[in-house]
Specification:
Distance between the termini: 21 Å
Structural class: alpha+beta
Helix content: 25-40%
Number of helices: 9
Oligomer: single chain
Number of strands: 19
Order of helices and strands: HHEEEEEHEHEEEEEHEEEHEEHEHEEH
Strand content: 15-25%
Shape: elongated
Strand order of the largest sheet: 1-2-6-3-7-18
Amino acid sequence: MTDPVSLTAELIRCPSVTPLEGGALGVLERVLAEAGFDCRRGDRGAVKNLFARWGDKAHPRTFGFNGHTDVVPVGDAAAWTRDPFGGEIAAGEIWGRGAADMKSGVAAFVAAAVDFVRTTPPEGAVILTFTGDEEGEATDGTVALLDWMAAEGERMDVCIVGEPTCPEVMGDTMKIGRRGSLSAWLTASGVQGHSAYPHRAKNPVHALAALVHRLAEATLDEGTKHFDASTLAVVSFDVGNTATNVIPAEARAALNIRFNDRHTGASLTDWLRAEAGAVAAATGVGIEVAVKVSGEAFLTPPGPLSDLVARAVEAETGVRPALSTSGGTSDARFVRAHCPVVEFGLVGTTMHKVDERVKVDHIRQLKAIYGRMLADYFG
């Protein structure tokens, strides 16, 4: 049987800090090709991606997994207790960058898929997709793979993304959706002048402060059936002025909105520009708004796929997972346009931290959960 722990260790030893592939996809391609998967690359630009399918491309029943092998930087390597790229096992845990997010999840679903097709070849197809761009700009990773699949006539009927989803206890949570994310940069342009004669200037700081306060105090919504209330956080306010006797000509601020399915990136952009326009009209200060939408809110309604996941998790852990839409963004936001998608993976308390690590037993348990999903899906 394929050992997901040793495969996790081998992946951790690949220094695949975004945007570097670090040899991780090569490791997976070798393991999958030996098991009879048709492996092809879906690279775009500098990003390396891997597609693997076992079974008939034209079969109407196709189960998919998605994951990423790129990791965030280690930060101060001297602050780590163990080598961040060592994949060392100690005290029942495996240590290293990517142990939680998400090389262990990738190793678990690869091991489950390999053993499943070897021991009980299904009537259908199993597709695995891997990207090296989830922790980066996420423009040439899963997006590129889905574009490549569309061009090649490849399709998943359902997909599991193996991100860490459990806050505290193995099996406690699955993600059936995610909030959208929007970042905005506000630039207020006034007229510079002497602080002793404010009437001869047009102070952009006052105008921008009024706008920021107005936005921060707004109630976007009260939440929806499957989502918490949307949130707005001001993350920066900069003037760059070191002189106390000068009113500056410009002030800048930045904010981030995490929004539920009551909004879209476009509707929130319209709202921000309307609020900025109101303050600009009242103060005479010009205010520009630049926006980047990282992902729209989405939901896979509770139903056959979430039930399949819940049954498998409960059978292997004794825990019935809660349905959640919390957290940041993931590549599920791209997969959802292709097919129904649910996220389930390990406890993620150490992801992106110094001394990132996960329990070895949890990796083996996750493999068993994924294997049960495959067995139940193909029946």
